[in-house]
Amino acid sequence: MMIVAYVCAAFCAALLALNLASVAIAAFRCRARPRTLPVPADAPAVSIVRPLRGLETFSEETLGSTFTLDYPSYEILFCVQCANDPVIALVERLIAAHPNVPARLLVGDDYVSANPKLNNCVKGWDAARFDWVVLADSNALLPRDYVQTMLAAFRPDTALVISMPIGSRPKGFWAEVECAFLNTFQARWQYGAEAVGIGFAQGKNMMWRREVLDRAGGIRALGAEIAEDAASTKIIRAQKMKVRLVDMPFEQPLGARTAREVYSRHVRWARLRRVTFPEFFAPEFMNGSFVPVVTGAYAALLLDANVPIVAGSILASLYGAELVLARIAGWESNWRSPLALLTRDVLLPVMFVDACLFDDFVWHGNEMTVREQEEPTTTA
Questions:
Q1: Residue-wise pLDDT tens digits, 228-243
Q2: Distance separating the N- and C-terminal Cα atoms of the chain
Q3: Could you give the CA distance from residue 301 to residue 295 in angstroms, rounded to a whole number?
């Protein structure tokens, strides 16, 4: 039994070290600074494609931020699938209010995959005039140094630069749980993955070196996977190139969230990871505090140590580190944050099992599945 106790203690210590290392990496890369990064002397022209569907709580602010960038040469391409979408009136008003910024509204649907967002982006990619193309979700808030922050991350081997969404302005407890998922959890693991050379694309903010995607067949090649960011990662790795993250990720204002919305969103992403990167999804059962606490507490039980103190110390170490990261980065944090972190970690193993058992989900009103679609058969 002593061997089992030492194995459990060592495993718990390894998980704690891994978590603390990811926190340290993210704290270094995401430390808060003024949003005043200068424009590079050889600043290239950039096309910004924003796929839209419907009006959201912060739509006027997030879409309006596209017009106020401190960058000398860029164009905006707003993409909408349906001519009766209520967001069109807002876009037309914003374009009229900023006549000095080249901007167009493109309406129509190009079906290239089961992914409606990708279908919406196709016309924007095709219409983009420049060699650097940004795909930015409608709910991403662009700071004034948005473009130069992304350009600064490029290296000769870089195909794509991304920014994780950092949840801000939560309204209510479940929006704070969303922040606990996005900020000190998913963002830090993304930075950790990049640090060991396995950076992954994430679809919220993506700046492409256009020639890389064009070599693979252009934006339509992203239809090879149900998630465009998974397809992006595989295309880039096939060309022996890298995905890199910006040094200070960009904000996504949240507003109100319900428990159902938070759970559905994150279990959907888990299902997508299961089918697109199964080898990286499998260890996710160790995410959060559940496995470290269980293994540490079991080791303490076998070694006749105080189990509640050991379990509490593990939680304090993990959550204390996340709260320090939030403070360094200037992210959402308040007296309810420890409870939000604990709620997230209670949900993580449930989501893992859910993602393993079920394939279907609904995204923006579209019923979708992660199952491979069967080819239609014909009869003579």
A1: 999 999 999 999 999 9
A2: 67
A3: 10
8 A C-beta contact, residue 112 and residue 57: no
Considering only CA atoms, which of 24, 350, 329, 347 is closest in space to residue 167?
329
Report the candidate in 124, 118, 136, 162 with the shortest Cα–Cα distance to residue 62: 136
CA-CA distance, 66 to 68, in Å (whole number)?
Answer: 6
Q: Are 286 and 318 in contact (CB under 8 A)?
A: no
| Residue written as token pair 């022209």 | 45
- Give the model's pLDDT for residue 1: 76
Nearest residue to 26 via CA among 327, 332, 340: 327
Amino acid identity, position 352: F
Tell me the pLDDT of the chain averaged across its residues.
94
Tokens 């309006």: give the residue. Answer: 64
Parse the chain into domains and list their residue ranges.
Answer: 17-26+279-364, 34-275
Summarize pLDDT for 318-357 with one digit per residue, the tens.
Answer: 999 999 999 999 999 999 999 999 999 999 999 999 999 9
Span 34-275 CATH architecture: Alpha-Beta Complex (3.90)
What secondary structure, in 3-state letters, does the chain show?
CHHHHHHHHHHHHHHHHHHHHHHHHHHHHHCCCCCCCCCCCCCCCEEEEEEECCCCCCHHHHHHHHHCCCCCCEEEEEEECCCCCCHHHHHHHHHHHCCCCCEEEEECCCCCCCCHHHHHHHHHHHHCCCCEEEEECCCCECCCCHHHHHHCCCCCCEEEEEECCEEEEEECHHHHHHHHHHHHHHHHHHHHHHHCCCCCCCCCEEEEEHHHHHHCCCHHHHHHCCCHHHHHHHHHHHCCCEEEECCCCCEEEEEECCHHHHHHHHHHHHHHHHHHCHHHHHHHHHCCCHHHHHHHHHHHHHCCCCHHHHHHHHHHHHHHHHHHHHHHHCCCCCCCHHHHHHHHHHHHHHHHHHHHHCCEEEECCEEEECCCCCCCCCCC
Task: Give the rounded percent of residues in the chain with a pLDDT score beyond 70.
Answer: 96
φ, ψ of residue 370 to 5 degrees: the values are -95, 0
- Report if pTM > 0.85: yes
Query: For residue 169, what are its two tokens?
Result: 């302005």
